[in-house]
Design a protein that fits this description.
This protein is of the alpha/beta class and 276 residues long. The chain folds into two domains: 123 residues, NAD(P)-binding Rossmann-like Domain (Rossmann fold, 3-Layer(aba) Sandwich); 117 residues, Rossmann fold (3-Layer(aba) Sandwich), CATH 3.40.50. 37% of the residues lie in helices and 16% in strands. The protein contains ten helices and eleven strands. It is globular and about 50 Å long.
């Protein structure tokens, strides 16, 4: 049995599909199993219950456990889970103690190593393409994408690529003890992202650059914790005017990574007027 935490999230949902297609038993965790909307054949359970009976391998997403990762990982160790594949971050390579994203993911990796289980840490670089969904409402309503760093460069990763690497780590021994670092296949600014959304949907999108104070207030209003807001501002400042290095996913998947335009094509319903 393979347990997927965060099973309705950006990476967990396509990973469920990958594992089902490969013919494996999947137990998927959701905060609300009744509304999870997962395919037939998936055993759905509540994240709070964390049922580990019969589980050999786990896909671990830290965001699924707002109370912290220590307790659920300790339970996995006690249950004798053989393998843990964790969604980490390439930010762990940054030793700045103010980078709380890096600090939390380094701690996550340490906790998993200390269980003695086989492990793989996925370290996507370049940002998730899915962060563009933060623009969805304003693009539908106004045809505008607002962001404070139009010239910040990223290499956005399609969540299906992350899920495909996770599936390989769960189903084969090829990535045991490895920390695959991979980006999307192209380096783009945030203004580029807005342009591509318009090109793919056929509904032009105007990019509007926010001041830092405006962005801070908007992100706080969206429920992002203050420390995370400040970490975001610091991080994006370092990305302005610096094209992101490309770390191909090809060695892990045997194919090029999916482009941002492909990601938009997979999510056009989120951006077109008259949809929700």
């Amino acid at each position: 049995m393979i347990l997927i935490t965060g099973a309705t999230g950006h990476v967990g949902r396509p990973l469920v599909d990958e594992l089902l297609a490969a013919g494996h038993k999947v137990r998927a965790l959701s905060r609300d199993p009744a509304t999870a909307g997962l395919p037939d054949g998936v055993e759905v359970a509540a994240t709070a219950e964390l049922p580990l009976d019969g589980v050999e391998s786990v896909f671990f997403v830290m965001a699924a456990f707002p109370g912290g990762s220590a307790e659920p990982i300790a339970r996995m160790k006690a249950a004798g889970v053989r393998r843990i594949v964790a969604l980490s971050s390439y930010s762990v390579l940054d030793d700045d103690p103010k980078n709380m994203i890096a600090v939390k993911h380094r701690e996550l990796e340490r906790q998993i190593r200390e269980t003695g289980a086989e492990w793989t840490f996925l370290r996507p670089a370049g940002g998730l393409a899915a962060t563009a969904l933060e623009w969805a409402g304003q693009i539908r309503a106004e045809g505008v994408a607002r962001f404070p760093f139009g010239d910040a460069w990223t290499a956005p990763v399609h969540e299906r690529d992350i899920a495909a690497v996770a599936a390989r780590a769960l189903l084969t021994d090829e990535l045991v003890g490895e920390a695959p670092l991979f980006s999307g296949p192209e380096t783009l600014t945030y203004a580029d992202r807005a342009r591509i959304i318009g090109e793919v949907t056929g509904e032009p999108v105007r990019f509007a650059e926010l001041g830092h104070d405006e962005a801070r207030q908007e992100w706080l209003a969206a429920g992002i914790p203050p420390h995370a807001v400040e970490a975001r501002l610091r991080m994006f400042t370092t990305m302005v005017g610096r094209p992101h290095a490309i770390s191909p996913v090809d060695p892990y998947l045997g194919r090029p990574g999916l482009s941002f335009a492909q990601w938009v094509a997979d999510h056009t319903d989120k951006f077109r007027k008259g949809t929700s």
